[in-house]
Amino acid sequence: MNIILIVADTLRYQNLGCNGYKPSYSDNKNSPSPRIDKLASEGISFNNYFTHINCTHPSFTTILSGRYPISHTIISHASLHEIIDGVVMFPEILRENGVKTVAIDNMYRWFVKGFQDYIFSADEGSLRNTFVVDADQITDKAINWIKSNKDQASFFMMLHYWDPHVPYSPPKEYEDLYYQDNPKNPTESEYPRMQDIPPEKFDFIFKAFQRRWQGIKDLNYFKALYDSEIKFMDNEIGRLLDFLEESKLLDDTLIIFTADHGESMDEHGIYFTHVHLYEQMMHVPLIFRFPNQFQTNIRKQALIGSVDLAPTILELFNIEIPDYLEGKSFLPILKNEQDIHRDKIYMFEHEAISRRGVRTSKWKFIKNARETENNELGSRLQALGYISIALETPEEKELYDLEKDPNELENLADKFPEIVNELEDDLEKFVSDTCNRIEIRDPQQEQELEPWGDIQTVKEWIALLKERNDNFKEYKP
User: Fold this and answer.
1) What is the 3-state secondary structure (H, E, C) of 220-258?
2) Does 355 fall in a domain?
3) Which of 423, 421, 419, 398 is nearest to 268 (CA)?
4) What is the pLDDT averaged over residues 50-74?
C-alpha cells in the first residue's frame, strides 16, 4: 500500500463544495473544488476535524510528530526557536520500517526528518520557507518522483500545496472565475467596501501586495481570488489523481486530503489572515479515499484532531504506535467500527497573541495564555511581519454554544460561569500534565517572545532563518 498525504495550506473547511459551499457573493455558484468533492464522494469525509494551532509551522509539526504544540514547543510560524530534543517525526518511523518516504515541500528545518527524498517544491531561485510556490509545481514534481519510483513496494508521500495562501494570486485564466464585475468600480449598489476597513486591519503580507490591488473597492474581489486559488489547486490535485489512475496506482494508494489551518475572510473583523481560535481558522477538511478497504461517500461526525493523523498512518502501515505519540489512531472509525473518538479538542494560538482553548461538540472556551500588553498585540512583528496587524484586545475569556451559535457571535462566558470554570480547569490541567510529563515549562507562558521588533530589515530576518535551515542542508536520512 502507498499513502499520499496532501496538505493544503490555509484552506478552511467551509469553502469546499463537498461541505455545502456555494459562493454567496458570486453569480457563479459552482464549487471551487470539484475534484476534491469527487474524492470525498469516493471516500470518507470527517465533519469535525480540527487543527490544534492556527499557523503553518506549528501545525505541520503537530501533524508530523503526533504531539501537541505545547509538547513539541513550536508555537510560532517561521520562528527562530528550535524544536526540543527527543521529538520524533512519524516519517522517521516509517523509514525505519522499510517504507520509502518523500516530501515535496519547502519548509526545511526539522520537517526534513525521516524523508529519504526531500524535494524543494518551487523553482530554483525561489525563497525557501515562503509561500512562493504554485500548485502546478507541486504536481509536476510529485508525478516525476512517482514515475521514477513506481517499482517501490510501498511509499509515503507528503505534498504541501501552498495555494490558497495570501496573496491569493491564481494564474490569470482563473482570476475571473468567481468575480466578473469591475472591482475598482462595482456596478452592484450593495457590496462590502474596502475603504470602510481601517488599513491597520490588514497584515503585512496582504498590504505588501496593495500596489497590485491599488484602487480595489469591493471586499468580495478577494473572496473570489481565494476561491479561484482553491480551484487552481483543485485542478492540479485532479491532474495528480488522473496520473495515478492512468498508471494503475490509484486503487493501491490511500489518498489523505487535509489542511494545516483555515483563514478568515472577514468574520469576527479579521480580514484575509488566520489569527484567533475561531472556527474559520481551526475547522479544516479531512478526507480519506481508499475504496479497496474503506466505505465510500460516508461522512463521520467524530471529533478528531490533527495530532491523531500520525498514529493513524502508522497503524495503516501495520507499524506499532510508540507510546510517546500523544495522538490516538482513528483507524476503527475508518473501518466503520465506531464513530466516537474524542470528547474534546485542545487548541493553541501562536505566540503573537497567545490564546488557548478547548472545544467539545457543544462548547468552545478560549482564554489568554499569558498577559499581553495592548500596544504589543497590535505592533509585534512575527514571522516576516506575518501578524503585524492591529487587533482589538480580545475579551479575557470567551465561551460559545456551538450548537446554537455555530458562527461564534455571542460570548456566553458571563452567563455560564460554571461551564467556563469546568472547561478552564480541564484546559489548564491538560497543559500542566503535558508539561510535567515531558519536564518542560509551559511554552505559551515561558517561551521568550521573538525579538522581531529588534530586527531592522526583512533581509536580516531571512539571513537568520537561512542559518537555521542550513543546519539541515546536509541532513542524511
Assistant:
1) HHHHHHHHHHHHHHHHHHHHHHHHHHHCCCHHHEEEEEE
2) no
3) 398
4) 96
The contacts of residue 294 (CB under 8 Å, 6+ apart) are 43, 44, 288, 334, 335, 336
Residues 6+ apart with CB under 8 A from 354: 368, 369, 370, 372, 444
Q: Give the bridge partners for 6, in sequence order.
A: 159, 257
**Contact yes or no for 263/272 (Cβ under 8 A):** yes
> In terms of residue numbers, what domain contains 16?
2-173+228-348
Alpha carbon distance 356, 366 (integer Å): 6
pLDDT tens digits, 253-267: 999 999 999 999 999
Spatial contact of 344 and 426, defined as CB atoms under 8 Å apart: yes
- Is residue 207, in this structure, part of any structural domain at all? no
Beta strands in 232-362 (DSSP E): 253-259, 286-289, 298-300, 304-305, 345-348, 355-359
Secondary element (H or E) of residue 95: helix 90-96
R_g of the chain computed on alpha carbons = 21
Q: Residue 219 — pLDDT band, cuts 50, 70, 90?
A: very high
Q: Is residue 332, in this structure, part of any structural domain at all? A: yes
- CB burial of 159-175 (b: ≥16 within 10 Å; e: otherwise) equals bbbbbbbbbbbbeeebb
pLDDT one-digit tens code per residue, 138-170: 999 999 999 999 888 899 999 999 999 888 989
27, amino acid identity: D
Q: 297: which residues sit within 8 A by CB, 6+ positions away?
A: 40, 41, 42, 43
Locate the DSSP E strands across 138-249. Answer: 155-161
Asked if the structure places residue 204 within a domain, the reply is no
Our count of domains for the chain comes to 1
Strand partners, 101: 156
- DSSP string over 388-434: ----PPPPSEEEEETTT-TT--S--TTT-HHHHHHHHHHHHHHHHHH
326: domain CATH number is 3.40.720.10
User: How far is it, in rounded angstroms, from Cα 57 to Cα 107?
Assistant: 8
pLDDT band of residue 273 (cuts 50, 70, 90) is confident
Q: How many Cβ atoms are within 10 Å of 430's Cβ, its own excluded? A: 16
